[in-house]
């Protein structure tokens, strides 16, 4: 069994029945990751695995702090996932900023944000997938999040403050993808 197969089964068992819309999003993020194989190279399976597990911390039986990147990372670490996978999940989509806003920075500091190509690609996949799993422009996705949560919600504050960093990662990934496609 591949790491991705294990991850897919785990995410499906934790999300499909109790959070079907979240499960649809996760599957869409994983499809996006598959489309980035050309830039992920020998790290493609890790990217796809992180994509399918990035929101596992939303599962009711996993959620402890209510901050899904942290809850997912703790769960995956306890489940024996590789450190790199755990750290990617912990820091997906600029989780460090949201952790600051939630007062959870100290807990998140147990996990490293590796930065770079793979981290950017995971952020790209998450930000370019709707809650229903369809592809979307990242800027439209940010606007959808702001609209869904409303002006006074912590998530809206986070996504508004995070937008420059998130969009920079999306844009870097798009440049990498365009360069790979130009070579083929």
Automatic annotation (TrEMBL):
Pfam short name (any one): HD
SUPFAM superfamilies: HD-domain/PDEase-like
Top-level taxon in the UniProt lineage: Bacteria
CDD domains: HDc (cd00077)
Family matches, as InterPro entries: HD/PDEase_dom, HD_domain
The HD domain, residue ranges: 22-147
Residues in coiled coil: none
Protein name from the UniProt record: HD domain-containing protein
């Amino acid at each position: 069994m591949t790491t991705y197969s294990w991850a897919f089964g785990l995410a499906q068992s934790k999300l499909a029945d109790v959070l079907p819309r979240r499960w649809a999003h996760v599957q869409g993020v994983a499809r996006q990751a598959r489309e980035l194989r050309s830039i992920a190279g020998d790290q493609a399976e890790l990217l796809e695995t992180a994509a399918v597990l990035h929101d596992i911390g939303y599962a009711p039986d996993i959620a402890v702090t209510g901050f899904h990147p942290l809850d997912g990372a703790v769960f995956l670490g306890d489940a024996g996932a590789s450190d790199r996978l755990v750290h990617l999940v912990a820091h997906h989509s600029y989780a460090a900023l949201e952790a600051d806003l939630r007062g959870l920075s100290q807990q998140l500091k147990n996990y490293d944000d590796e930065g770079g190509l793979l981290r950017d690609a995971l952020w790209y996949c998450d930000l370019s997938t709707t809650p229903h799993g369809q592809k979307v422009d990242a800027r439209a996705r940010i606007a959808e999040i702001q609209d869904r949560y409303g002006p006074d919600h912590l998530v809206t504050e986070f996504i508004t403050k995070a937008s420059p960093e998130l969009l920079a990662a999306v844009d870097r990934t798009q440049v990498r993808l365009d360069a790979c496609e130009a070579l083929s």
